[in-house]
Amino acid sequence: MYRLNRVATMVFGATLLAMLVLGGSAFAQEEKSVELTPSRGSGVSGTAILTDVEDGVKVELSMKGLPEEGVKHINHFHGGGTCADDRDGRTAPVTIPLEPVVANADGTGSETSTVEDVTLDKLLGDDQHRFILLHDKVKKGQGVPPGISCVDLPQRSTNTTFENLPTSGGVPPLVLLVIPLGLLLVGTSAVLLVLRRFIA
Ligand SMILES: [Cu+2]
Fold first, then answer.
1. Distance in Å, CA 12 to ligand 1 centroid
2. 113 with 98: CB under 8 angstroms?
3. Which strand (E) or helix (H) includes residue 134?
4. Can you give the residue range of the structural domain that contains 81?
5. pTM listed for this prediction
6. How far apart are CA 179 and CA 192, in angstroms?
7. Which of the residue ranges 28-32, 61-65, 73-77 would you say has the lowest mean pLDDT?
8. Is position 60 within any domain?
9. Distance 133 CA to ligand 1 centre (A)
10. How far is the CA of 168 from the centre of ligand 1 (A)?
11. How far is the CA of 136 from the centre of ligand 1 (A)?
12. What does the alpha-carbon distance between residue 91 and residue 80 come to, in Å, rounded to a whole number?
């Protein structure tokens, strides 16, 4: 009786710990990498890595092929359109500004921003088409300069009216981990409870 209780406690404890560790790391590692491609013949391309962090989503932009050293390139999330629209001259509005990218001598440039109070799921799964757009050099009196590099963000939500992008991820990995571990926990506890009653 005493031993069985101890075993039950240990199994329960170990399973709980595994759930926390696996669940926690799955959350921390949730990230999405997308490639920006040149617009308007700019030759400017790059990578954006979006990562779920504690207070929001971290956005790391790494560009190459920037034409002029020291030039500051503003860039944003835009919502309600696509890169194709922008390339056709119909640019959807800015929804989230990011830190500017400043060009190095070799044409590279990067920035890191944290979009607060949002999750990757929400950013990718909301009911708006979002894209990241990097703009040309700001000139006085010109307003927002044209986009020179762009990427459409994948949308993984199914409960929206926008259906022209295939849903990719399905159930998030965290849920996939927690469900079997939860079942294991419940199952083990139940077996041990029955065993305990049976022996006692
Ligand atoms: Cu913009």
1. 51
2. yes
3. strand 130-135
4. 31-152
5. 0.66
6. 20
7. 28-32
8. yes
9. 5
10. 26
11. 10
12. 9
Residue 158 has pLDDT above 60, yes or no: no
pLDDT of amino acid 29: 54
Cα(73) to ligand 1 centroid in Å equals 10
Cα of 161 to ligand 1 centre, how many Å?
A: 24
179 CA distance to ligand 1 centroid (A)? 40
- Percentage, residues of the chain above pLDDT 90: 54
Helix (H, G, I), strand (E, B) or coil at 101: strand
DSSP symbol at 41: T
Q: In sequence order, what are the beta bridge partners of 62?
A: 47, 110
39 in helix, strand or coil? coil
Domain count, the chain: 2
- The answer on 62 and 18 residing in a single domain is no
For residue 163, how far is its CA from the centre of ligand 1 (angstroms)?
A: 24
27 C-alpha to ligand 1 centroid (Å)? 29
Here the CATH number for the domain that contains residue 38 is: 2.60.40.200
| Distance from C-alpha of 109 to C-alpha of 118, rounded to nearest angstrom | 25
What is d(CA 30, CA 71) in angstroms, rounded to the nearest whole number? 32
Query: Measured in angstroms, how far is the CA atom of residue 134 from the centroid of ligand 1?
Result: 6
Query: 105 CA to middle of ligand 1, Å?
Result: 23
